[in-house]
Amino acid sequence: MSTDVLAVGAHPDDVELGCGGTLASLASAGYGVAIVHLTAGEAGTRGTAETRRSEAEAAAAVIGASLHWLDFGDGGLRRGDREEDELIALLRQLTPQVVLSPPPRDRHPDHERAHALTKDACFYAGVGARGQGRPHRPQAVWSYMIHHPFEPRFIVDVTRAWDAKCRAMDAYASQLYNSKKPVEGPPTRVSSPGFRASVEGRARHYGELVGAEFGEPFFGEIPPGVTASSLLGGPA
Ligand SMILES: [Zn+2]
Ligand 1: distance of its center to the CA of 132 in Å? Predict the structure, then answer.
């Protein structure tokens, strides 16, 4: 299946937390969805790289996405020419129309580095003189929210995909709080019940702003274009 949307994450679970509902919605509507994790999360406090790989595979299966891996180094994510070339090669291979990236400003520096790398690679992937293969530039790059809040450019109603998003988060049993499957290990911010509750609370907050039960907010440098009829509830 061809790829319509590619979601990029610095660490396994970033994509699922930030835009898992949007991806699951698109996959269930028949669009081609892909995820690439830029690292295996090998520097994480909990869970080995192997564990996180199998968790990521299970989460991608729940969402209905194909899964790809790059190895740019967890905890000091590299974003040099070599890494940019590897991401450009993947963009040219998958030819997504839309790319979803980590946000430009966030608590973890790897997220900010992943944002800059993704934005640059999406532009350069369309430059024929750069690298190998046929140029392809995605039409848009939107950032999903992980930790730091931002003023959204738009909010996606993910109410119907909320169950899939929760099951994708449950797949990360070594990372995220799961009432059914407690995991031993040092406590971390994201492994606390409070963090899991905050993910739901935030989705309820942004959903409520657009008249939905659950919503996922997105940011971009410029707003998306809409059709006049979409102001009246028609197709965007
Ligand atoms: Zn992360």
Answer: 30
